[in-house]
Amino acid sequence: MSNFFVVFFAVLLALLVAPFAQKNAETIWTSLTRITFVQRNGVALSVYLVASVAIWALVMIVLPQLYMVDFSFRHNLPFNEVGGPKDTWTLDNYRYLIFGRESDAELFNWLHLKVFFKTILVSALVTLFDLAICYPIAYYMAQVAKGGKARLLVLCLIVPFWVNEILRAFAFRILFGTSGVINSALIGLGIVDQGIDFLRADVGLYAGLTYAYILLMIFPLYNAIESLDHNQVEAARDLGSPWWRIHYRVVMPHAKPGIASGCTMVFMLCAGALAAPQILGGPSSLWFTQVIYDWFFQGLNWPQGSAYAFVLLATCIVFVMGVMRIFNVRFGEIAK
Amino acid sequence: MSADVELDHVTIRFGNFTAVSDANLRIADGEFFSFLGPSGCGKTTILRAISGFLDPTEGEVRIGGRNMRGIGPNKRPTALIFQNLALFPLMSVADNIAFGLEVRGVSKFERRKRAEELLNLIALPDQADKLVTALSGGQRQRVAIARALAVEPEVLLLDEPLSALDLKLRQHMRTELRAIQQRVGITFIYITHDQGEALTMSDRIAVMSQGVIQQVGNGAAIYNEPATAFVASFVGENNPFLGRVTQADGDYAVVETSFGALRGRNRQKLSAGDKAIMFVRPEVLQLANGAAAGNTIESPVINEEFEGQFVKIYLANEGPKPIGLSMTNDGGTALPAIGDTVRVAFDPNRANVLPVGELADE
């Protein structure tokens, strides 16, 4: 039904526009060539540029997301009832995340809310942890190491990421397992009597997530710090500044856009990660993306899954905007 | 307390490259001292050794009699003004100036007061809350000076701080720097490749070439009594005449050159038979009217340049460059025409006989 309408409207639109376009072809052409962008790039290239960006942004990003938004406000109906009298707008999917079923004993849906807040909190911590690990490395690469040494370091950082995500995640299982590399070492050294269950304690998960996004933190930081004139570091030192104050007053303010950009990427991707939590999470631990995944593929409830996914997306955006506000970073600076 | 800066047999090597070799000197408290030399002569390396960004490979840097080895730049009583100034672009003018005080834990109120005092000293009042990026080149220059002075250093080090300014401003800042130095009374150590800056501002100058300090002295000594061929050719203009000493008596020596025997001061105590270069400055050469005997050069005029106050006359020479002589444009003497062969004479007291050595290339 709905497919028919879409095609129908498209044909109608085309029929309406075509004669107009044909009649005014000359005017359209001349006004098109009057645009500076078109003049500079030629008609063919500018049409390609505009069309490809428009298709990418609209068709591949905005439209499917709008579909998902639409989904999230609908009931989970059997196929033959779609478009029927029962197909109405509803907030049930969102309400479910907060309050659960009405028949539940608890007022709130603690099971999912806990997972949700844990995901946000742990992602924030992983982001901070990544920042703490990567800042010194990025500073060393950008300001201290010279030529060949810096390039070697970059290579050492990139090469491990040729290994695919799944393999890396399983490697971490081997590292952190009860009889894994770390535990064997600890037992061998006589530090512990029996293996510690790192995976159950989610240590493996946190380490895996931290490791997975290191590059996304290092490169924005490196770019930002690299553009700092080294004389400023020396000037601060010459004026008597200890090293930590140089970073706090000179390097970090300069690198703020890079820090913001790295943190945003790591946080967003971490909150949306699926493979690492699936493989490295403890048996009782859930990541919010796993709940979403289950709604889609186990529960076959796409509206419910969409609602959960949107709450995650919206929360991440609000969280990031809030943090940027606190640290006084303008949105445009991230793109630097 | 006294803040003499002493370099005691300072040698600085980077790998196989010797940037500074065996530098010895003592800069007195309150002196305006310049290191002058072409780029790559090691003057900046010496500055970095005094400020503490590097330690000499051999020898000692002493400030106020204390060996500075192992003491970082943040612990030395020195402040450095960088060539590109290195002001903090994200801070206001006041925050820049007060940065050193902030580091020392001075209260906000006190910092502000001190910054405003310094802004008055550098004649930039009411600019405290601007961003440094909003200032002009000359204003930034002064902010950099104020920032360095705020920490009350005993020695202020300046690494070619005027090189980024245009000519007018540069000349103005020379006077200004000298005035500030006299007002605050601390030691200024100034690095430059611009001899005009060195000569006008400094109490004493060390001329450097290829890591070696060639001569230390005041401007007049450096200019009038150069100790090496490099100093003679680097500072001001000079006409070199290559030859061999034929006669050396006490303070004077006679050098046999392609223009015949020429007599000049022999401060470096060359003896007969030594190869030597006789240096005679363009303003020392005078057109000889008629009968001047001895110490004369005869050569055709190949070019003339009118410079207003002076007229430069170039005479043919066997060497790579013509002999230059400058005549004051006082209307006293008629100018020779190009092609005329002229005879020029000079006072032996104002010519210098020096050992053969590296010449500065221009």
Description of the molecule:
- The complex is a heterodimer of chains A (336) and B (362).
- Chain A has 17 helices and no strands.
- Chain A is mainly α.
- Chain A folds into two domains: 1-28; 110-334, MetI-like fold (Orthogonal Bundle).
- In chain A, α4 (43-72) packs across α16, α5 crosses α16 and α15 (288-297) runs antiparallel to α16.
- The model of chain A has no long low-confidence stretch (mean pLDDT 85).
- Chain B has two domains: 5-224, P-loop containing nucleotide triphosphate hydrolases (Rossmann fold, 3-Layer(aba) Sandwich); 229-355, OB fold (Dihydrolipoamide Acetyltransferase, E2P) (Beta Barrel).
- In chain B, α6 (167-184) links the parallel β7 (155-159) and β8.
- Chain B is elongated, with a radius of gyration of 24 Å.
- Classes of the chains: A mainly alpha (336), B alpha+beta (362).
- The interface between A and B is medium-sized, with 17 and 25 residues.
Shape of chain B: elongated
Q: What name is given to the CATH topology of the largest domain in chain A?
A: MetI-like fold
* Largest sheet, strands/sense/barrel of chain A: none
Distance between the termini of chain A: 47 Å
Largest interface: A-B, 17 and 25 residues
The low-confidence parts of chain A are none
* Spatial gap, N to C terminus of chain B: 43 Å
Q: Which strand-content bin applies to the residues of chain B?
A: 25-35%
CATH superfamily of the largest domain in chain B, by name, is: P-loop containing nucleotide triphosphate hydrolases
Number of domains of chain B: 2
| Number of helical segments with 4 or more residues of chain B | 9
Measured as a percent range, the helix fraction of chain B is 10-25%
Mean pLDDT of chain A: 85
> How many beta-strand elements of chain A?
0
Described by the principal axes of the CA atoms, the overall outline of chain A is flat
- The poorly predicted ranges of chain B are none
List SSEs of chain A in N-to-C order. Answer: HHHHHHHHHHHHHHHHH
* Strand order in the sheet with the most strands of chain B: 6-7-8-3-9-10
CATH architecture group name of the largest domain in chain B: 3-Layer(aba) Sandwich
Which architecture name of the largest domain in chain A does CATH use? Orthogonal Bundle
Question: Which class of secondary structure composition applies to the elements of chain B?
Answer: alpha+beta
